[in-house]
Design a protein that fits this description.
heterodimer, A: about 350 residues, alpha/beta, Rossmann fold, 2 domains, seven-stranded mixed β-sheet, five-stranded mixed β-sheet, 12 helices, 14 strands, globular, B: about 425 residues, OB fold (Dihydrolipoamide Acetyltransferase, E2P), Dihydrolipoamide Transferase, 3 domains, eight-stranded mixed β-sheet, four-stranded antiparallel β-sheet, about 25% helix, about 20% strand
Chain lengths: ~350, ~425
């Protein structure tokens, strides 16, 4: 799936969290401007143990524990980026971005524009996101669409260990702020990861499974649910194409539109709240393009329920799209029942 | 203040007009004089121009029937605030409430609210000529010139899906090209000549005829690209069920639109003449000139006996006499010609389709459509060619034409001048197109 030349490099199995750590290790080792910042990322190793023992390898000057203030920490990271460093700032939970919105939205995203391009903010922010951990309403949200609404930010949602390493390294090469949303359920997922340095392009979706009957455009953890659903559908004679959007902003128009031109049917699957979400943007993109003429059924969006994520495990599952929901939608749309 | 766009009166006895399609979308800018919408009346279909410059808002839905003089949309000035629709659309078929002398008294015996006044949550009604169809089905139908409203939808709520269009297209018989012509897929059989330059000439044959009838004339028109359209139920066109002249005219118009010709000379014979005239009336900007050969539609009379005789004939012996009625010089109709003509009419379904068409176009031996008003409106160069021994349609119908229409009347010629005096008709056309 990777376009970089080092795709030929030997691979081994790493978890998603290990792949992030490896990317940060490579960056710290090859570029002195790179620093890690965040709450408990030092000796403790990070809320999800993503940073691990990097503090012992690079010291407390480069792996910096920040006080319990997301606004303060994000502000320091943005300031450091403005003065020549390339900070990777970790939030403990993406929900806490709400505390740092001033720095993310009003400063990081806008300074380049407001100073006529004289400066840039090469900051990378990492957000452990999503539900499924029993952490309830304030620690389970999927807010990538909030930040995707802000010009000046790039917002990515890698769904595989290989992609998260490549996209984190691509984010460090980007002169502007890049927000990486990492689904917490993915941290333990294993996958092949090429060794050494490579980048995975930001703004390019990946076709994870080719199909001709319908297009499922999914993000993050939903890509894996969509792939599982597609296997079941294949047994029923329904050939689903699964697209991993990978980047929320800037969105890869052509890959999505080409798929819809081919299949004529679209299901969007994402964990963020359905209304005014990523699926709305994808649907509108199709409706506004010539791909509209290829639609042979109404579009279906599967998104998060219109409520905070519940604590009760069964309700928590019910609040986000699951494999049976995808199956039901795909069968209905492929058989012309909607 | 927004400018009202009104339903114009285009016929003497027109009471209402139906909005067929808007050329400009809601919220788009229009220029005074540019085509704004198409209407259809009992008799004709035509294009209506924008009365002023402005931004189009509050358009009446396509398919609605609106009384003449009533608003169908409003034009706003650039930057003018668009509020509520200034006035509701006048419904064409709502009867006036009966006047009552009874004093209006509040009825307090039934305190329940009148729920019938509340909005009803039912599937949105679909106008009869606005089918429920997917964008893909619409695009496919548009591309192949099919009328989406005529198709059957197999999807939920009767939605027409791509596969419905595909199956409709498969029922259209395969087009076979005549020598020197290439066939095109579409609802009607269209063949194009391979030579010629400049503005193309579109040839529309008459009732119970087909594109082959143009062969004698084509030798004179080789300098232009020729496009021959065959009517439904004729030649290689499918045998569509046609409700009336307006529907036939609409089918032809859709076919013409799908050809993508920016400008064309129209040449029509008999029924094809009436259809050419209706087409020129609706698409005046696409028509360079109009040539009507023994056209229908300019008066009520027609030789009903000859029509039914032609339609009934199943053998050369019964067809021959009626073919001879078409021409002045009967020696043109040789036995060999009759046998050839009969072999082209041997398929019973073709005769049935033409009989069904004759029933709606010429009931009781009368022309059930009148295009004289359309002829009066024509601004393009127009000529009528007629034989003064026409035994099918009285040539004196030509005298109803307005002064700017040229008349070429041939002595000793019948209903088929393009065959009977092909050289003379050819040289008239050659100088005209």
């Amino acid at each position: 799936m990777n376009t970089h030349a080092t795709i030929e490099a030997p691979t081994r199995e790493l978890s998603y969290a290990e792949a992030i750590r490896e990317a940060m290790d490579i960056a710290l080792g090859s570029d002195e401007a790179v620093v890690l910042m965040g709450e408990d990322i030092g000796v403790y190793g990070g809320a999800f143990q993503v940073t691990g023992d990097l503090v012992h390898k690079y010291g407390e000057d480069r792996v910096i524990d920040t006080p319990i203030s997301e606004l303060g920490g994000a502000g320091v990271a943005v300031g450091a980026a403005l003065t020549g460093l390339k900070p990777i700032f970790e939030f403990q939970f993406s929900d806490f971005a709400a505390l740092a919105m001033e720095q993310i939205v009003n400063q990081a995203a806008k300074v380049r524009y407001m100073l006529g391009g004289a400066v840039s903010v090469p900051v990378v922010m990492r957000f452990p996101a999503g539900s499924g951990t029993g952490a309830a309403a304030q620690h389970s949200q999927s807010i990538e669409a909030w930040l995707g609404h802000v010009p000046g930010l790039k917002v990515v949602q890698p769904s595989t260990p290989e992609d998260v390493k490549g996209m984190l390294l691509a984010a460090l090469e980007d002169p502007d702020p890049v927000m990486i949303f990492e689904h917490k359920i993915l941290y333990k997922m294993k996958g092949h990861v090429p060794e050494g340095y490579y980048t995975t392009p930001i703004g390019k979706a990946a076709i994870r499974r080719e199909g001709k009957d319908l297009s499922i455009v999914a993000t993050s953890l939903m890509v894996h649910k969509a792939l599982a659903a597609a296997e079941t559908l294949a047994g029923e004679g329904i050939d689903a194409e699964v697209i991993d959007l990978r980047t929320v902003r800037p969105m890869d128009r052509e890959t999505v539109l080409n798929s819809v031109r081919k299949t004529g049917r679209l299901v969007c699957v994402y964990e963020g709240v359905k209304t005014l979400g990523i699926g709305a943007e994808i649907s509108a993109m199709v409706a506004e393009s010539d791909a509209f003429d290829f639609l042979d059924a109404p579009i279906i969006r599967l998104g998060g329920a219109e409520c905070p994520i519940p604590y009760n495990p069964e309700l928590e599952k019910a609040a986000v799209p699951q494999i049976p929901d995808i199956l039901e939608a795909a069968r209905a749309i492929a058989k012309g029942h909607v | 203040m927004p400018v009202e766009v009104i339903m114009p009166k285009v016929d003497m006895d027109m009471a209402t007009g139906k909005i067929m399609s808007w050329h400009v979308g809601e919220g788009e800018a229009v220029t005074k004089g540019a085509p704004l919408f198409d209407i259809e009346t009992d008799k004709a279909a035509m294009e209506v121009e924008a009365p002023d410059n402005g931004i189009l808002h509050h358009t009446a839905p396509e398919g609605t029937e609106v009384p003449i003089g009533q608003a169908v949309a409003w034009l706003y000035a650039e930057g003018e605030a668009v509020g509520e629709q200034p006035a509701p659309f006048a419904a064409a078929k709502t009867p006036e409430p009966a006047p009552s002398d009874e004093p209006v008294v509040a009825d307090i015996s039934h305190p329940e609210p009148d729920v019938s006044a509340l909005p009803q949550f039912a599937p949105a009604p679909i106008a009869a000529d606005r089918a429920r169809a997917t964008p893909k089905a619409r695009a496919m139908a548009r591309k192949s010139g099919l009328d989406i409203n005529a198709l059957h939808g197999s999807g939920p709520l009767g939605r027409i899906q791509a596969e419905d269009v595909l199956s409709a297209l498969q029922t259209v018989p395969a087009m076979v090209a005549a020598p020197g012509f290439s066939a095109e897929n579409g609802p009607l059989s269209v063949t194009r000549s391979r030579g010629g330059t400049g503005t193309p000439v579109v040839l529309i044959h008459g009732f119970a005829s087909d594109a082959q009838s143009w062969a004698p004339l084509e030798a004179h028109l080789k300098h232009r690209p020729l496009v021959r359209i065959e009517l439904p139920g004729h030649g290689k066109s499918p045998k569509l069920r046609i409700a009336d002249f307006a529907a036939l005219s609409r089918t032809l118009r859709q076919c013409f639109d799908s050809l993508g010709l920016e400008n064309a000379h129209l040449v029509g014979h008999s029924l094809g003449g009436a259809l050419s005239l209706a087409l020129a009336d609706t698409r005046p900007r696409s028509v360079a000139s109009l040539t009507l050969i023994a056209p229908a539609g300019l008066g009520p009379e027609i030789n009903g006996a000859a029509l039914s005789g032609l339609l009934k004939a199943t053998r050369a012996e019964s067809l021959g006499p009626w073919l001879k009625a078409l021409v002045a010089d009967e020696t043109l109709i040789t036995d060999a010609y009759v046998r050839l003509a009969m072999s082209g009419r041997s398929e019973p379904n073709l005769r049935h389709a033409q009989s069904a068409l004759a029933d709606v176009l010429f009931p009781d031996g009368v022309q059930a459509f009148d295009l004289r008003a359309a002829l009066d409106r024509i601004e393009r160069p127009t000529r009528i060619i007629w034989g003064k021994q026409d035994g099918i349609i009285p040539w004196k119908h030509a005298f109803g034409a307005p002064g700017h229409v040229a008349l070429h009347l041939f002595k000793g010629i019948g209903h088929m001048p393009q065959i009977e005096c092909a050289d003379a008709v050819g040289s008239i056309l050659k100088s005209a197109v």
